[in-house]
Amino acid sequence: MGSLTIGEVASRARLQPSALRYYEQAGLVPPPARVNGRRRYEPDVLQRLAIIQLARQAGFTLAEVRTLFEGLEPGATPVSRWKELAEAKLPEIEDQIRRAEAMRHLLHEGLRCDCITLESCGLVLERLSSGT
């Protein structure tokens, strides 16, 4: 397989071309060769994009994703860095889950509310008295 156009890469990676250009600008994807002024990517960019997408789905920031690739030798895998970042990310995700569950609980409580006004709502009054 030869080099790929930005459209071919975007289509195969299920990304918008603008996302690919953004990843390139952010330093997550190496700058492609230019042929007649047009980007031409090597096929291995698809694997790198798959790793980026997986990391983003796991909640990693772009800076964290960049850390996956920094200083790696060509052909090396970022597995040890993935594990290190994942161990650091898990407490953050657990906290987000706790907050989301608290929000869900509050929304369910609000659905059961029969108060005439928000000012007289037991949920609001409870928050006022508890200081939260």
Give the oligomeric state: single chain
What count of structural domains?
1
CATH C-level name: Mainly Alpha
What is the CA-based Rg, rounded?
23 Å
Question: Which structural class matches the secondary elements?
Answer: mainly alpha
Poorly predicted regions: none
Count of beta strands? 2
* Strand/helix succession: HHEEHHHH
* Strand order in space, largest sheet: 1-2
Main β-sheet description: 2 strands, antiparallel
Average pLDDT metric: 87
User: Could you tell me the strand content as a percent range?
Assistant: under 5%
Terminal Cα span: 60 Å
The CATH architecture name reads Orthogonal Bundle
Shape: elongated
Give a structural overview.
- The chain is mainly alpha-helical.
- It has a single domain (6-130), classed as Multidrug-efflux Transporter Regulator, Chain: A, Domain 2 (Orthogonal Bundle), CATH 1.10.1660.10.
- The chain is 61% helix and 5% strand.
- It is built from 6 helices and 2 strands.
- It has helices at 6-13, 17-25, 45-57, 62-69, 79-111, 122-130; strands spanning 33-35, 38-40.
- Helix 4 runs antiparallel to helix 5.
- The relative contact order is 0.08.
